[in-house]
Amino acid sequence: MIILGIESSCDETAAAVLADGKLLSNLIATQAIHQQYGGVVPELASRAHQEKIVPVVQAAIAEAGITLQDLDGIAVTNGPGLLGALLVGASFAKGLALALQIPLVGVNHTQGHILSHFLTEPAPKFPFLCLTVSGGHTQLVVVRSPLDMEIIGQTEDDAAGEAFDKAAKLLGLPYPGGPLIDQYAQSGNPKAFQFPKGNMEGYNYSFSGIKTAIMYFLQKQDPEFIQANMADICASIQHTLVETLLTKLKLAIKETGIKEVAIAGGVAANSGLRQSLQLLRDTMGLNLYIPPFAYCTDNAAMIAMAGHLLLLDGRDDGQNLDVSPNLKY
Fold first, then answer.
1. What pLDDT digit, counting tens, does each position of 128-160 carry?
2. Cα dihedral angle (227, 232, 236, 238), rounded to 10 degrees?
3. Most CB within 10 Å of its CB: which of 41, 93, 155, 165?
């Protein structure tokens, strides 16, 4: 079964081809135009998707060594994400599926991140806990099967990735700033400065207070101090955010007894989070699954894998497929 996956939920136009669960191609076209605005501009993202989706799909098909007529199904992100961006991908996918007379399935973007673990070996054993962390989402999910997932904890305000990017913007770092904080942090002292950790009930998260504390701290400093202490400030910010994430994860591991633990989403590429998870693995005796960097950020391989599993389950959304910017599990 050969599946074309399409991802266009934000500012990455991506296409991938999967054959019986094996990845044949995985291409991503980035949108550099947003850097000058310090964040993603939805209208510009939609226009860029319109320009790039045809050549990206064509390139993915060519790299996979197949033709459009070889496709057995199409999977496309139908939420959550930016409405205009989602519509470009879904409209293209619906038209192509109709022309080829093949099944079409919509994929939840965040579920796609979780299922990216099945693109490589070893894959997590069910049930497993997945910490999904990105610019738009922070969730703790119990995954009982590829199609049975339960959110047991999530952020009640801002996402962890948003906190990273907001802190970077306050520091005067260019967009996207999260990876730059990670780079500076590697040479800094994570305990040089103290920031409060959000403390919500149960497994839920809060990052708005951390963002506010960072803003007030930086407002009190002169530019020379910030520049001279950039590495220590970044390391302290990263340490606070990572510790906030791991506090709830450790609680969930202890209370559920699940020792199979995975991480997904763009922040899964953060070196501080990866190192802390590896230490947690050693101290708690976990089986830890960290995806390759290519599958952490938005990509179409994860959408193709999710589509593969959905099609095997008999799903076909066809021309009734719709998009939802706030799509839930």
1. 999 999 888 899 999 999 889 999 999 999 999
2. 80
3. 93
Q: Could you report the per-residue pLDDT of 200-255, keeping only the tens digit for each?
A: 889 999 999 999 999 999 999 999 999 999 999 999 999 999 999 999 999 999 99
Taking CA atoms, 296 is separated from 49, 268, 274, in Å, by 20, 6, 12
- Alpha helices by DSSP H, 66-207: 83-100, 109-115, 160-170, 178-185
Kindly list the distances between the CA atom of residue 83 and the CA atoms of 45, 87, 202, 317, in Å, as whole numbers in the listed order: 10, 6, 32, 19
Q: Which helix (H) or strand (E) is 120 found in, with range?
A: none
276/68 Cα distance (integer angstroms): 44
The C-alpha atoms of residue 9 and residue 30 are separated, in whole angstroms, by 12
Contact between 48 and 59 (Cβ < 8 Å): no
Closest Cα partner for 244 from 178, 158, 326, 174?
Answer: 158
